[in-house]
């Protein structure tokens, strides 16, 4: 039987992905290449919804793609592409917008959160309709499932509603993706503020480990991670969130279980744990950075891989859009 199809995207909105992105999402993307027919895109259309600098976006799109390849996405085993290279996304996005109710779109809580700073009136219409474009991203590929986190549950529901609505109104066209969230394997928290999630919008740079930062600097951040006043190395997310986060990272990067690590550090102190993890992180970052740089140093090769990816994506997206156009009378 054919492998289930998945679609996932990531925004090129930072100079580097961070350890949270890797352990919570990208690592799963790599694994799913073996079990799924996986489509992965750098969603640059989504990256212009809140204002952007063109040169920076161009650079970040390439750096993002290079990092995805560097962490293990293999163009032979998945379809990796840049969203704007596949015009069907914007085309289907328009159609889906026309079957979305204004009130329905207005109920998306993420817009309310994201637009809070500038106020809804000053936010772009693109930010408002972004969940509709996201629905188009998924439906174009007839994805069976979508590996997203809990925060995307409402958007996934919208995608399902729109797929079912279109199918009912115009005839069977879209696969309705499964309602379940493919859970993140790990929630990584901020090294300085261990109850908050590690995020590119972290309040201090020391809270975040970027895949492309100086490994020695990353090691220092681990060594100065906030823990607690206790001494015992146990996994207790409520009372020892800092230590729990370090153990989570350690386990994820080495393949050892948390229990194994807790046993191994019995009688040792936080300093020992941090020192060892700092080494693990350094050794983890080095090859990723070497491979990322190799892709960035050969722009022609990177362009070629992304062109092949776009072509593979269009081979699926094109027929879907054609069916849509046929059904709606274009
Ligand atoms: P950020 O929070 O830094 O803005 P994004 O929202 O762009 O990151 O997230 C991209 C992907 O990385 C999503 O799949 C998200 O669930 C995952 N992710 C982001 N931060 C973390 C984290 N701290 N722990 C686990 N997964 C994360
Ligand atoms: Na975010």
The general outline is globular
Spans of 5+ residues with little confidence (pLDDT < 50)? none
How far apart are the termini? 34 Å
Helix-strand sequence: EHEHEHHHHHHHHHH
Q: Taking strands numbered 1, 2, ... along the chain, how are they ordered across the largest sheet?
A: 1-2-3
Q: Radius of gyration, rounded?
A: 21 Å
Helix/strand structural class: mainly alpha
Strand content: under 5%
Report the bound ligands by name, code or SMILES: adenosine-5'-diphosphate, sodium ion
Report the total helices: 12
Percentage of residues assigned to helices? 40-55%
Task: Report the major sheet.
Answer: 3 strands, parallel
Mean pLDDT: 95
The overall strand count is: 3
Notable features of this structure?
330 residues, three-stranded parallel sheet, 5% strand, binds sodium ion, mainly alpha, binds adenosine-5'-diphosphate
Description:
The chain has 330 residues and is mainly alpha-helical. The chain has helices spanning 19-35, 54-70, 88-97, 102-106, 109-114, 125-140, 153-170, 215-223, 241-254, 258-264, 270-296, 299-328; strands spanning 5-10, 37-42, 79-82. The protein has a three-stranded parallel sheet with strand order 1-2-3. The longest helix is centred in the last third of the chain and has 30 residues, at 299-328. It is globular. Adenosine-5'-diphosphate binds next to helix 1.
List the helices and strands and how they pair.
Layout (H helix, E strand, L loop, with lengths): L4 E6 L8 H17 L1 E6 L11 H17 L8 E4 L5 H10 L4 H5 L2 H6 L10 H16 L12 H18 L44 H9 L17 H14 L3 H7 L5 H27 L2 H30 L2
Helix pairs in contact: 2-11, 3-6, 3-12, 6-7, 8-11, 9-11
Adenosine-5'-diphosphate binds next to helix 1.
